[in-house]
């Protein structure tokens, strides 16, 4: 197990190098000069040159990349071109709201998605099953930004307890609607996956044996069925969480949450290279870490799985 | 399907349908009832679109940063609602007859938010700071008219020789040459007076912890989210009626509009898409405030490119071929007004009698014939129009393309992100490009001088228009101390530019804001671009109890 974790962590080095190089090249292939966005509308070439020099944007590209790597190795991702603040601080500040949003969305998706999937599987071809699967179909089909706007229009208003938009740390009032909007797709996918996975498990011989032994139906479903159906669900939760952490741009924009997605979008628009590079590395790290955690969870769920 | 099957099916669907009906009925619980009430804490809440980058007056260049900083800092002079210079830190001033020397008398007893009295030494420090290389300011040009500014900027002098401080409350400034808009320069947010001890306080970024002498003091800033200011109880003109200001950074205008409707903002920009319905709703229509801003949106014609750059008749034909009314009313939803020339209405120097251009197909054909391409634009090569890919720019570009095509002028469209668009135009790459020019200070000079041949590219003359006669005229206007004669020169300069048509003059933007009925003292000016309302004097804004609804 230890050697497995070590191997995966060592793999991180080439992965991060590759990702940082790809992100660096992509940013510079994009047309546009950050200096033109930072300087006033009538800035002449002298001012633009000063701005470029100030942020070392006039250094040769390989030098810029190596400088970036050197600093990144020491935990310094540079200074934001737009605000002059340290990138690490900016990433941490904007990651907190995103983390809360992603965690809330995942919680919503788990409760609603796995719950609906389990109910569907327990009562296949009933009206409850039809309603759950109809809801799941709607969940995967509705665009997040549209759902967000609709939730805002329908449920947030002058006499509603729910906030229209904005951010307060750990506030249910502010996070309820965005979490529902963002979590709906994951909930829908989880519901469908849970249903199919559980139905398959429930048709196995050991379930029939359990029922024949007179085990209560809820116990059959949760203890024998659910645990064995969890493997694909856990895989999907891992992938979803990584997606929720990086792909919440639309929800963050609609609900005006100062999260990582919005920060990246602003940084790309403003050609804020240090922030884009820092954010890409940060997200890559998140993906790799989450995948590792999911792999380790397999062993906890299924004792037959061994890591050599 | 048999009857029993249908019944089973309807029984199955019933709960689902009920749920949908319940969901649809819920919004009824959210309707506003009764007149809106001011916030109990007395704090004015307003939206910002992008949010500030820094609150250090020497460093910011964007509208939102200036919008926040303007309330924290004071300047020597300010602009009144008619955009005329008015006293701020300087209670009076004198200008010498030759227009070269300005003597300002500072108010006594003005305190910075840290409690120290503001003196002429702070004015010197603030202006010199703008010019010093180490400050990395891009707004040094605000004080560049002062004699000795170049030497300080180049590092050949240690101080600004044209600025004297004979006593703690007198500032004497000598200019290199007469410059009428100088007072407007000093009223810009970048010319704010800052306390040296706070700027240079070790370990503290002044841009994040600003200390000024304005009507509001800085409280906190959560990036991309919120900025809070509190009333300055020791403000020289007395504490403001408002307890504070709360700026919320809301990127989406529709979200800001929802927050406004929910009673969480005191004003917001009226979204283009809703402007029609707002005007039809008597309640909301009464809350709508509009003002034409000092801005001109245009399609630039790169003068170094063939065929339009070398053919004035073709450029005029292009100006006559575009239906500005349609673009302003139908595409931009009434948020812009058509432009016939360069200067926006509301700016001193604007000439209502200027013929300029308006949509005229017959004249477009005439000019096209004079250009040598016949009335249908025979053999005219295709030109490429670069534009910002964010809405509503694509729709405007398409309308321009369609109008020009209709007149026989073929145009190809090239959408780009703003950064890429600016980079391309700075290099003179596109044949045509759509951009806007927003007034930095309320003087015709600001709009006309960007056509000077010394300002090619990023300095403003992106069309690369060169006319020695215009250069002479503009230089002369800057030296002219007599206001009327100067205005006549500037009007002549505008006529010259409009006749040469290096731009297709399209429109002037309007600011449309919804303001709650309980807000009083809120006066918009032509320099209020968007919801940050940089020129609104919040020291004069107050809340009044909303009128009772008539039974």
Give a written overview of the molecule.
The complex is a heterodimer of chains A (308) and B (551). Helix content of chain A is 76%, strand content 0%. Chain A has a domain at 96-265: MetI-like (MetI-like fold, Orthogonal Bundle). Chain A has helices spanning 2-29, 34-38, 45-54, 61-73, 87-122, 127-141, 144-155, 172-202, 205-212, 217-246, 249-254, 260-269, 273-301. Helices cover 30% and strands 19% of the residues of chain B. Among the domains of chain B are: 75-193, Dipeptide-binding Protein, Domain 1 (Dipeptide-binding Protein, domain 1); 293-509, Dipeptide-binding Protein, Domain 3 (Dipeptide-binding Protein, domain 3). In chain B, strands 11, 12, 13, 14, 15, 16, 17 and 18 form an eight-stranded mixed sheet that branches. With 551 residues, chain B is an alpha+beta fold. The longest helix of chain B is centred in the first third of the chain and has 23 residues, at 3-25. Chains A and B meet through helix 2, helix 3, helix 5, helix 6 and helix 7 of A and helix 1, helix 7 and helix 14 of B.
Structural topology:
The complex is a heterodimer of chains A (308) and B (551).
Chain A: H1 2-29, H2 34-38, H3 45-54, H4 61-73, H5 87-122, H6 127-141, H7 144-155, H8 172-202, H9 205-212, H10 217-246, H11 249-254, H12 260-269, H13 273-301
Chain B: H1 3-25, E1 43-48, H2 63-72, E2 77-79, E3 85-87, E4 90-95, E5 101-106, H3 120-131, H4 149-154, E6 163-167, E7 170-174, H5 182-186, H6 196-199, E8 216-222, E9 226-231, E10 244-249, H7 253-261, E11 267-269, H8 275-280, H9 282-285, E12 288-292, E13 295-301, H10 312-321, H11 324-331, E14 336-338, H12 361-370, E15 383-388, H13 393-406, E16 411-416, H14 418-426, E17 432-438, H15 444-448, H16 468-479, H17 483-500, E18 503-515, E19 519-520, E20 542-543
Parallel strand pairs in B: 1-10, 15-16, 15-17
Antiparallel strand pairs in B: 2-3, 4-5, 5-7, 6-7, 8-9, 9-10, 11-18, 12-18, 13-17, 13-18, 14-18, 19-20
Helix pairs in contact in B: 10-12, 16-17
């Amino acid at each position: 197990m230890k050697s497995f974790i070590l191997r995966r962590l060592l793999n991180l080095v080439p992965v991060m190098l590759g990702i940082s190089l790809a992100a660096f090249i992509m940013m510079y292939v994009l047309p546009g000069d950050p200096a033109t966005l930072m300087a006033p509308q009538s800035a002449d070439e002298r001012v633009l040159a000063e701005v470029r020099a100030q942020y070392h944007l006039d250094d040769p590209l390989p030098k810029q990349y190596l400088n970036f790597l050197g600093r990144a190795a020491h935990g310094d991702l540079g200074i934001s071109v737009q605000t002059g603040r340290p990138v690490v601080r900016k990433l941490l500040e904007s990651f907190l709201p995103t983390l809360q949003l992603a965690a809330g969305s995942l919680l919503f998706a788990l409760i609603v998605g796995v719950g609906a999937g389990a109910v569907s599987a327990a009562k296949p071809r009933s009206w409850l099953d039809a309603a759950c699967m109809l809801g799941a179909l709607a969940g995967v089909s509705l665009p997040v930004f549209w759902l967000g706007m609709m939730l805002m229009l329908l449920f947030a208003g002058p006499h509603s307890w729910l906030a229209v938009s904005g951010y307060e740390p750990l506030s249910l009032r502010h996070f309820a609607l965005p979490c529902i909007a963002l979590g709906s797709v994951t909930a829908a996918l989880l519901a469908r996956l849970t249903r199919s996975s559980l139905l398959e498990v429930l048709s196995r011989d050991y379930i029939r044996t359990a029922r024949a032994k007179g085990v209560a139906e809820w116990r059959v479903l949760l203890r024998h069925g659910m645990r064995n159906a969890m493997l694909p669900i856990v895989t999907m939760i891992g992938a979803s969480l990584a997606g929720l952490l990086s792909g919440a741009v639309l929800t963050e924009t609609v609900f005006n949450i100062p999260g990582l997605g919005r920060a990246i979008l602003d940084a790309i628009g403003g050609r804020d290279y240090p922030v884009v590079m820092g954010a890409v590395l940060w997200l890559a790290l998140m993906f790799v870490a989450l995948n590792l955690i999911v792999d380790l969870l397999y062993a906890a769920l299924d004792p037959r799985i061994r890591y050599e | 399907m048999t009857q029993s099957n249908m019944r089973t099916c309807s029984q199955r669907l019933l709960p689902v349908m009920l749920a949908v009906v319940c969901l649809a009925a819920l919004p009824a619980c959210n309707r506003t009832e009764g007149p809106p009430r001011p916030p109990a804490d007395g704090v004015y809440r307003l939206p910002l679109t992008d949010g500030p980058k820094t609150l250090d007056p020497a460093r910011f260049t964007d509208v939102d940063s200036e919008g926040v900083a303007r309330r924290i800092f004071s300047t020597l002079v300010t602009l009144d609602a008619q955009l005329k210079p008015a006293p701020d830190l300087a209670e009076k001033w004198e200008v010498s007859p030759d227009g070269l020397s300005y003597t300002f008398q500072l108010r006594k007893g003005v305190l910075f938010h840290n409690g120290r009295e503001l003196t002429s030494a702070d004015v010197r420090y603030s202006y010199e700071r703008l010019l010093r290389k180490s400050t990395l300011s891009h707004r040094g040009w605000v004080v560049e008219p002062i004699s000795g500014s170049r030497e300080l900027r180049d590092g050949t002098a240690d101080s600004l020789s044209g600025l004297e401080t004979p006593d703690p409350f007198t500032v004497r400034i000598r200019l290199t040459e007469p410059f009428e808009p100088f007072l407007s320069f000093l009223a810009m947010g970048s010319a704010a007076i800052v306390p040296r001890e706070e700027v240079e306080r070790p370990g503290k970024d002044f841009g994040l912890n600003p200390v000024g002498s304005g009507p509001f003091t800085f409280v906190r800033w959560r990036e991309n989210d919120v900025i809070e200011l509190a009333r300055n109880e020791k403000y020289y003109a007395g504490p403001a009626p408002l307890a504070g200001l709360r700026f919320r950074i809301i990127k989406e205008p529709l979200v800001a509009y929802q927050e406004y409707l929910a009673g969480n903002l005191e004003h917001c920009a009226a979204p283009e898409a809703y402007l029609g319905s707002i005007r039809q709703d008597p309640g909301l229509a009464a809350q709508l405030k509009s003002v034409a801003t000092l801005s001109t949106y245009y399609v630039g014609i790169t003068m170094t490119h063939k065929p339009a750059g070398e053919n004035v008749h073709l450029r005029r034909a292009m100006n006559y071929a575009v239906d500005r009314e349609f673009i302003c009313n139908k595409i931009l939803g009434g948020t812009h007004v058509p432009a016939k020339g360069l200067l926006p209405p509301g700016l001193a120097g604007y000439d209502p009698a200027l013929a300029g251009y308006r949509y005229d197909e017959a004249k477009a054909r005439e000019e096209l014939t004079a250009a040598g391409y016949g009335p249908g634009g025979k053999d005219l090569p295709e030109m490429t129009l670069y534009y910002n890919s964010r809405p509503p720019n694509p729709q405007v570009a398409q309308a321009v393309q369609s109008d020009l095509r209709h007149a026989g002028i073929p145009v190809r469209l090239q959408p780009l992100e703003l950064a890429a668009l600016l980079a391309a135009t700075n290099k003179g790459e596109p044949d045509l490009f759509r951009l806007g020019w927003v007034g930095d200070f309320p003087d015709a000079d600001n709009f006309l001088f960007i056509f000077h041949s010394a300002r090619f590219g990023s300095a403003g003359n992106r069309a690369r228009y060169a006319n020695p006669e215009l250069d002479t005229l503009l230089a002369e206007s800057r030296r002219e101390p007599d206001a009327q004669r100067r205005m006549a020169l500037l009007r002549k300069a505008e006529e010259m530019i409009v006749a040469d048509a290096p731009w297709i003059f399209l429109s002037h933007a309007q600011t449309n804001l919804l303001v709650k009925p309980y807000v009083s003292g809120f006066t918009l000016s032509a320099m209020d671009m968007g919801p940050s309302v940089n020129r609104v004097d919040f020291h004069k804004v107050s809340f009044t109890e909303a009128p009772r609804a008539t039974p």
